[in-house]
Write a structure and sequence with these properties.
Radius of gyration: 15 Å
Number of helices: 8
Strand content: under 5%
Number of strands: 0
Order of helices and strands: HHHHHHHH
Distance between the termini: 26 Å
Largest sheet: none
């Protein structure tokens, strides 16, 4: 772990949390739950494999594509849908009409908001405009799930 930007344990925990949140959001949004699970489990695959965050969404999409193709279990359309969501999940400030891309972004930022010190991390590492979009996304997901919108981060 000393050579990684975050611990493998944290990354696996985060991936698992995103998967569960993705399942719930998929049900609320009438999306395919299995597709949502796969998107969410693979969204940070590059970080899990390489331990680095730089360009992790785009690099992770390449890994995800190979994994999905090699499995032989997915259609070309399913692979494209999943890979697109993985590739764009870090663009929290960009809103699209692509439901699985948005689900990946929302599950990711919401799961992170549940960890202690997430707010401090985002304030320190994200430009204010991007931080504000994270807060907006978290608030929107909280509202969608019927949670207090004002409690954006775990304090």
């Amino acid at each position: 772990d000393e050579k990684r930007e975050s611990s493998i344990v944290w990354e696996l925990k985060h991936s698992s949390g995103c998967c569960q949140i993705g399942r719930i959001l998929a049900q609320k949004r009438n999306l395919n739950v299995e597709t949502a699970e796969i998107v969410c489990v693979l969204h940070d695959i590059y970080v899990i494999v390489a331990g680095k965050y730089e360009e992790h969404a785009k690099k992770g999409a390449e890994i995800a594509k190979k994994m999905l193709e090699d499995s032989g279990e997915f259609t070309t359309e399913e692979i494209e849908l999943i890979v697109e969501a993985v590739a764009h999940h870090s663009e929290k400030h960009i809103y699209t009409d692509k439901p699985y891309v948005e689900l990946a972004k929302d599950a990711d930022v919401f799961d992170c908001s549940l960890y202690e010190n997430a707010k401090g991390f985002y304030v320190l590492h994200k430009p204010k405009k991007i931080y504000d979009e994270y807060v907006k996304r978290i608030g929107n997901v909280r509202k969608e799930l019927g949670l207090r919108e004002s409690a954006v981060f775990r304090e």
